[in-house]
């Protein structure tokens, strides 16, 4: 059941009606049943695999000992690997269960927190099942934590029209991002990346830029929709985006992009790796090679490499994802290892981070670093990615003929010109809104009816029909 479909709209209307009509102590049951219906709607057999994950993790963590933790890892990662990576073992008939990467991380996060005594194991299987299967977050996140979600999911909620208004407005905003901005960028991006050797450097630069905007509009649009739906239910999901393209360094970018995934990796992979025995030995070895380096810096080297390789593989076993992970591992390591040196340099040259031109420089620098990485994330292979890099750096020309060539993926004549103008206006409007929100987070909180009407009219005029799937559903 796509979030952008008539059937989902009917499903939400029925769910909200029943949710607020039953006794408050029974609302969590409505959510559980609704979540299972939503999940089974895609393919009923999917219920079997998520049920195995839910029941096995719940049962094993009732007594969180090391052997149970290892068995939990084997079961959940085993199911994930079989389905997500079967194609790489020449098994092409398996259909990947909906949201398996996200709910696997939630089950493992819960188990790890039980092992670390951060939470008490849940005694009620149905309560735990609701946490894992809660339908707004199961397909693409955010990756919730049990300590943050349990009370909200199980608490009684009273009907509040303000929640419906705020949630509905956020859903409209998400639909606008998806159908209008991402939807209109998709054709250009797909056309260019399908055959990069046929385009010059300027066209490829525009395609990479468009892809970055498309990915953000698509993914953050999804988050707006599911957070809006949850708000209608009086449940607050964790925010997953915080205007990441305004970040001034790469560490800040990853604190503002796909926030829940990065926090999961930090909590359940990075920190355990930093404090592990093997890493202590490895950092001591590095200390002999680099005696002047700080111990804290040395201890982050191998965990950073591990996290980014795993992050790349989590997205897929293709060479482009592994290359993307290696790329950001190198960038993050360089940033961490030169942090103290750069502080001394900034002090020596009286670098003022509050200067508007320096802020613009830092933001553009970070954005360009991200764009270079996104080439690999979007390319069909590393061969295509390296071809794109080569053509960008060797064939980019800024002249009238290059701009005419860059219009080709839009179509011909007036169609191309109209598409280009619409996209420039849409991206410009998105930039202005995000910039204002960056400086005043409470901006655009009033006059919601007016903004909603404007977005609905724009969707009717410029929205792209048939955009039912979100990009991150592939992961």
Shape, per Cα inertia axes: globular
Distance between the termini: 17 Å
- Name the helix and strand elements from N-terminus to C-terminus, one letter apiece: HHHHHHHHHHHHHHHHHHHHH
DSSP helix count?
21
Q: What fraction of residues sit in β-strands?
A: under 5%
What's the number of extended β-strand segments?
A: 0
Biggest sheet statistics: none
> Ranges with pLDDT <50 over ≥5 residues?
none
Number of domains: 2
- Average pLDDT for all residues: 90
Helix content: over 70%
Class based on secondary structure composition and strand pairing = mainly alpha
Radius of gyration: 24 Å
Describe it for me?
By secondary structure, the chain is mainly α. It has 2 domains: 6-159, no CATH class; 165-474, no CATH class. Helices cover 72% and strands 0% of the residues. It has 21 helices and no strands. The protein has helices at residues 6-21, 27-42, 46-61, 66-84, 100-115, 125-133, 135-138, 146-154, 161-194, 201-232, 250-256, 259-274, 277-289, 295-315, 319-337, 339-348, 356-378, 382-395, 400-406, 413-439, 448-462. α10 crosses α18 (382-395) and α17 (356-378) packs across α18 (382-395). The longest helix has 34 residues, at 161-194. It is globular.
């Amino acid at each position: 059941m796509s979030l952008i479909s008539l059937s989902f709209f009917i499903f939400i209307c029925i769910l909200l009606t029943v949710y607020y009509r039953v006794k408050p102590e029974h609302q969590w049951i409505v959510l559980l049943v609704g979540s299972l219906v939503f999940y089974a709607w895609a393919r009923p057999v999917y219920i079997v695999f998520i049920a195995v994950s839910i029941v096995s993790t719940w049962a094993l963590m009732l007594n969180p000992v090391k052997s149970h933790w290892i068995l939990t890892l084997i079961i959940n990662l085993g199911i994930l690997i079989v389905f997500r990576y079967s194609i790489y073992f020449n098994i092409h008939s398996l259909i990947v269960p909906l949201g398996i990467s996200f709910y696997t991380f939630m089950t493992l996060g819960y188990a790890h927190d039980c092992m670390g005594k951060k939470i008490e194991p849940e005694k009620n299987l149905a309560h735990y099942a609701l946490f894992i299967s809660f339908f707004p977050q199961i397909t693409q996140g955010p990756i919730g934590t049990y300590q943050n979600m349990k009370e909200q999911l199980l608490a009684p909620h009273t009907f509040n029209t303000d929640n419906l208004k705020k949630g509905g407005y956020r859903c409209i905003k998400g639909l606008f991002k998806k159908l209008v901005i991402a939807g209109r960028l998709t054709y250009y991006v797909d056309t260019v990346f399908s055959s990069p050797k046929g385009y010059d450097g300027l066209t490829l630069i525009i395609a990479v830029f468009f892809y970055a905007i498309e990915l953000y509009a698509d993914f953050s649009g999804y988050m707006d929709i599911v957070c809006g739906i949850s708000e209608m239910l009086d449940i607050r999901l964790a925010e997953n985006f915080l205007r990441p393209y305004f970040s001034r360094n790469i560490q800040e970018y990853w604190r503002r992009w796909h926030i829940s995934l990065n926090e999961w990796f930090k909590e359940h992979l990075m920190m355990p790796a930093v404090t592990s025995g093997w890493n202590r030995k490895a950092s001591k070895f590095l200390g002999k090679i680099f005696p002047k380096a700080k111990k804290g810096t040395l201890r982050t080297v191998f965990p950073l490499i591990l996290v980014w390789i795993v992050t790349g593989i989590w997205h897929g076993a293709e060479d482009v994802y592994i290359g993307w992970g290696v790329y950001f591992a190198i960038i993050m390591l360089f940033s961490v290892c030169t942090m103290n040196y750069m502080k001394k340099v900034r002090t020596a040259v009286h670098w003022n981070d509050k200067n508007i031109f320096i802020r613009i420089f830092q933001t553009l620098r970070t954005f360009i670093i991200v764009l270079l990485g996104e080439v690999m994330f979007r390319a069909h292979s590393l061969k295509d990615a390296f071809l794109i890099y080569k053509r960008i750096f060797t064939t980019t020309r800024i002249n009238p003929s290059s701009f005419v060539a860059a219009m080709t993926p839009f179509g011909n004549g007036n169609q191309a010109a109209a598409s280009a103008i619409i996209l420039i206006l849409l991206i410009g409007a998105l930039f202005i809104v995000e910039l204002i929100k960056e400086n005043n987070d409470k901006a655009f909180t009033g006059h919601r009816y007016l903004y909603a009407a404007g977005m609905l009219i724009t969707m009717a005029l410029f929205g792209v029909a048939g955009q039912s799937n979100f990009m991150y559903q592939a992961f």
